[in-house]
Design a protein that fits this description.
By secondary structure, the chain is α+β, with helices and mostly antiparallel strands. The protein folds into 4 domains: about 290 residues, Anaerobic Ribonucleotide-triphosphate Reductase Large Chain (Alpha-Beta Barrel), CATH 3.20.70; about 200 residues, Alpha-Beta Barrel (Anaerobic Ribonucleotide-triphosphate Reductase Large Chain), CATH 3.20.70; about 170 residues, no CATH class; about 150 residues, no CATH class. Helix content is about 35%, strand content about 20%. It is built from 28 helices and 37 strands. The strands form 13 sheets. An 8-stranded mixed β-sheet has the order 13-2-3-6-7-10-21-20. A 4-stranded antiparallel β-sheet has the order 34-35-36-37, with no helix packed on it. Strands 1-14-17 form a 3-stranded mixed β-sheet, with helices on both faces. Strand 29 and strand 30 form a beta hairpin. It is globular and about 105 Å long. Pfam families: Ribonuc_red_lgC (PF02867), Ribonuc_red_lgN (PF00317).
């Protein structure tokens, strides 16, 4: 049964239409066919006028039969957008700060300007930073020490971030550093402080280094520029200066540990890349594009397209399913011509990119849907038969593509830098072509220097292939739930199905008992992932983007061995993704063991050791009704109470703002009720620090967890001041003694909350915040004590002089986590209440909660309380609006140093992830489990991982950019 007949009766699923319209449709376009018509016409516009109609039909036929041009082509071809059709570029960076070198290499800031223009036009950029002199190297002109490549990477990172905020497409970047660069260790760990978030990172590893790892030898870290203080005999015969020597296995272990725990850096086997390069005779490659499937020279580009392999399977799931290799070759031929046309059709951000592309005419045709095609052919992805099939597909695609490019050379001419002897020399990719093809190339030349590249396909596989498995990857999950934000701000959910799974169900298959050839990514051993790449790589002249997803408990030694095997197998690079084991990943949910993880030995038995959660809590910030003060253009009511003590202390007023919210009665009718959402204090004589306490408590008032708010008020009501006070309490003005101002404030706020009914039927209310606490009561140190991080705070304007202490706990995975703060010295005693509040916030699993609290306090001002103080972690000073603001900055900095929050106060990777659910119920899971990762830009859950080379949220199904 032909696949096109089956697909005619299979309607598109909602996710396909959504992504198509969001990402690729223009004007009135609503179907893949309409987009393909536009793109086909654009591709044909560079043909001879008399042949444009014919070729528009050919290109449309190819796209209707499985050819999917890359995302930039589908989104911009045939439109009036001033954007490039090229997905990614590699751009050079020299060692100079300004201007250009004699060979045209741009200095650092010239390269920055070029990158900005490229990203502004929609292209991602890869760079090799190895030419930049190391930290501490001699700068002759000023006789000073260099700051090193990582410092300049931060400049590029901020530039990309600015461009990203100004446009709709993420500005993807790849940063590469050679393994023999003296700053390689700094590079490997550079993202641990939360910076460089707009970079993917890869180490360019040489054969010499890998050999040293294999034999446990020493390895020299070198550079062309001499150290500031050069020692005798430090310069080698090749002219490079030896900065130091390191045990190769020690450096390799640093790279592997970082990759194992943080999914970066990736590894590029750069000598293999250059040895395999068809243009090794006229160029040298040092970097890749952001997705890693194209290793490119300076100003090189990715002109990409993919063939949907599911469109060539006849009789899927039948007795004798077959792959139509003849039609596959025909579609390949038309696709190569289409991609060659893109090079003449596109807008080029820089003239250097235009010149580079025209001299070599690189294109990158690959395939997508391999995992689904194998399932349709009833082959397990991890079987030898599957690898043999994939190898045959890659060889067929290569031979057809190279043959087509020879025919194009006859018609249009070979690429200008073609040299037959150099091009066909061993061990270049072209040297492995069939003898007949090599003879044709030698006689007629070839139009395109490179033709093959298997890229991550991300949203184009969803929009144009019915959510087929991406690129070379197996299916990630058979179903998942996508949460979609509607125009009115509400959310709706719908199910998303893998293409092969959906097709199987459509054809009458029993999805409750899937056959064993339905093999998902996490069912496959990591080595079998790598073996699939190794089976295909010999036929791919550029590279393959493949992400090996491994389980959190995958043994480190096996993980490390995977990379060594990849090098020995001749791969050009390897990328893995393992859920980060920072905070969330070490917490389990409903596991089979009832044992509770041990707390550190220096903590006594009074600690609440609840590190095993009985359900999956949501991200803490999702419990907020409003992250900030709601916009109420009509105004709102505020309840106020004047605080007057009997001992003559200053009077001040407490305000509690409230608004109405709808509530559903048991009979289904809708009513409204008043809820408190903020509190503040007023009066020039208010106790110092009480305003900051009220500001922090307002965020708790906006939480949908009333038990959490009550817990906060309970803690505050026990806070003692220097002396107790007597005051009139609402509602009748009865005199009462309170331990201090903070306690009085808490009890007055509690009174109003009770009056509004906030604590009625408390046991029936949801408790998302309380559920998200690591422990409810503070762990108590035993006789051995515990460690605290301390910092001195001096504000001459207010005569504050005290020590801030941050008590820290070491979790079972070795991660340090702040859990309490204290003050000692001369400070407003009201701040003890603030410390109590923030200490409770620190015990929430999701560190985004404490991060947002502290960010809000950074702007807290105080009359006549501003002062100069050093910026934490930097060699400069600035004016801080109050003692409280500086205290918040110091705590934020400590979280940054510990690798938990970035410089913006947001969680780094798994640091903000919550607990991971148990693997699955009995039987094989159809729906993917939530996996800890980065914060999702759509739903905010820390479940944003790399899947099929692209970013994907395992919580809401959001598909992010590739690279």
């Amino acid at each position: 049964m032909k696949i096109e007949n089956i697909l005619a009766a299979l309607p598109e699923q909602e996710v396909t239409i959504d992504v198509l319209v969001e990402k690729y449709a223009k004007g009135d376009e609503r179907t893949p066919h309409e987009i393909r018509q536009r793109v086909a016409k654009a591709l044909a516009s560079v043909e001879k006028p008399a042949e444009q109609e014919r070729w528009a039909g050919e290109y449309l036929w190819a796209m209707e039969n499985g050819f999917i041009p890359a995302g930039r082509i589908n989104s911009a071809a045939g439109t009036d957008l001033k954007a490039t059709l090229i997905n990614c570029f590699v751009q050079p960076i020299g060692d100079a700060v300004w201007g250009y070198a004699e060979d045209g290499t741009p200095g650092i800031y010239a390269a920055l300007q070029e990158a900005a223009e490229t990203m502004r036009r929609g292209g991602g950029v890869g760079y090799d930073f190895s030419a930049i002199r190391p930290r501490g190297a001699l700068v002759k002109g000023t006789h000073s020490r260099a700051s090193g490549p990582v410092s300049y990477m931060r400049v590029f990172d901020k530039s990309c971030e600015t461009l990203e905020s100004a446009g709709s497409r993420r500005g993807a970047q790849m940063g590469v550093l050679r393994v023999d660069h003296p700053d390689i260790e700094e590079f490997v760990h550079a993202k641990r402080d939360g910076s460089l978030s707009n970079f993917n990172m890869s180490v360019a590893v040489t054969d010499a280094f890998m050999t040293a790892v294999d034999i446990d030898g020493q390895f020299e870290l070198v550079h062309e520029v001499q150290p500031f203080e050069a020692v005798a005999d430090a310069q080698r015969e090749d002219g490079k200066w030896v900065y130091r020597s390191i045990r190769a296995r020690e450096l390799w272990d640093q790279i592997m540990r970082s990759t194992y725990n943080h999914a970066e850096p990736g590894v590029i086997f750069i000598d293999k890349v250059n040895a395999d390069n068809n243009l090794g005779y006229c160029e040298s490659i040092a970097a890749s594009n952001p997705c890693g499937e194209q290793f490119l020279p300076p100003y090189g580009c990715c002109d990409l397209g993919s063939l949907n392999l599911t469109r060539f399977v006849s009789d899927p799931f039948g007795d004798k399913p077959v792959f139509d290799f003849e039609r596959f070759s025909r579609v390949t031929a038309v696709s190569v011509r289409a991609l060659d046309n893109v090079l003449d059709l596109t807008l080029w951000p820089l003239p250097q990119q235009d010149r580079e592309a025209k001299e070599k005419r690189r294109v990158g045709l690959g395939f997508t849907g391999l995992g689904n095609a194998l399932t349709m052919l009833k082959l397990r992805y991890d079987s030898a038969e599957a690898r043999a099939f994939a190898s045959k597909v890659a060889q067929t695609m290569r031979d057809s593509a190279y043959g087509t490019s020879v025919e194009l050379a006859k018609e249009r001419g070979a690429f200008p830098l073609f040299n037959a002897d150099g091009y066909l020399a061993e061990p270049h990719s072209a040297s492995r072509l069939p003898a007949k093809l090599k003879a044709e190339i030698r006689k007629h030349g070839i139009r395109n220097s490179h033709l093959m590249s298997i890229a991550p396909t991300g949203t184009i596989s969803i929009a144009f292939a019915g959510n087929a498995s991406g690129g070379i990857e197996p299916a990630f999950s058979w179903t998942y739930t996508r949460k979609k934000r509607m125009p009115d701000g509400s959310k709706r959910e719908y199910d998303v199905e893998d293409f092969a799974y959906r097709l199987y169900r459509h054809m009458g298959g029993n999805t409750a008992a899937l056959p064993e050839y339905f093999t998902a990514a996490m069912d496959i051993d990591a080595l079998d992932h790598m073996r699939m790449s190794a089976a295909v790589q010999p036929y791919i002249d550029s590279a393959i983007s493949k992400t090996v997803n491994v389980a959190e408990d995958y043994p480190y030694e096996e993980f490390k061995a995977l990379y060594l095997e990849a090098w020995k197998a001749g791969l050009k690079g390897i990328t893995t993704y393992r859920p980060n084991a920072v905070i969330g990943s070490v917490l389990s949910v409903g596991g089979t063991s009832s044992a509770t993880p041990e707390m550190p030995q220096d903590l006594g038995g009074d600690a609440d050791r609840r590190l095993l959660l009985d359900k999956v809590p949501q991200p803490a910030l999702s419990s907020l009704r409003w992250p900030g003060r709601p916009k109420l253009p009509a105004g709102n009511l505020a309840w106020s109470y004047m605080v007057e003590s009997t001992d003559g202390r200053a009077s001040f007023c407490i305000f509690i703002g409230q608004t109405d919210e709808p509530v559903t009665r048991r009979d289904g009718s809708i009513a409204t009720r008043s809820v408190a959402f903020e509190t503040w204090v007023n009066g020039n004589e208010q106790p110092r620090g009480l305003g900051a306490l009220a500001k922090a408590l307002s965020m708790d008032l906006r939480s949908n967890d009333r038990a959490w708010l009550k817990m906060k008020l309970d803690h505050l009501s026990r806070t003692r001041d220097e002396k107790p006070l007597q005051l009139a309490m609402p509602p009748g003005g009865e005199l009462a003694f309170k331990p201090g101002v903070v306690a009085a404030f808490a009890d007055i706020v509690r009174f109003r909350c009770e009056e509004l009914g906030l604590f009625d039927a408390l046991e029936e209310q949801p408790t998302p915040m309380v559920d998200a606490m690591i422990f409810r009561s503070e762990p108590k140190s035993g006789p051995l004590g515990t460690l605290s991080w301390t910092a001195d705070i001096t504000n001459a304007a207010t005569e504050d002089e005290f020590v801030l202490g941050v008590k820290e706990l070491q979790l079972p995975d070795g991660t340090r986590r702040p859990y309490s703060i204290w003050l000692a010295g001369d400070y407003p005693r009201v701040l003890d209440g603030l410390c109590k509040l923030l200490s409770l916030d620190m015990r929430v699993i999701d560190v985004n909660w404490i991060g947002l609290k502290l960010r809000k306090l950074l702007s807290f001002g105080e009359l006549n309380g501003a002062f100069w103080a050093q910026v934490p972690g930097e060699q400069r000073q600035q004016v801080w609006p109050s003692t409280v603001a500086y205290l918040a900055a110091l705590i934020l900095h400590r979280y940054k140093v510990l690798g938990l929050l970035d410089s913006e106060g947001r969680a780094i990777g798994g640091a903000g992830a919550l607990a991971i659910p148990d693997a699955s119920p009995a039987g094989r899971p159809l729906q993917s489990a939530i996996i800890a990762g980065l914060a999702c830009p759509s739903c905010g859950a820390h479940a944003y991982i790399k899947k099929d080379g692209c970013m994907f949220c395992t919580a809401c199904g959001h598909q992010g950019e590739c690279g």
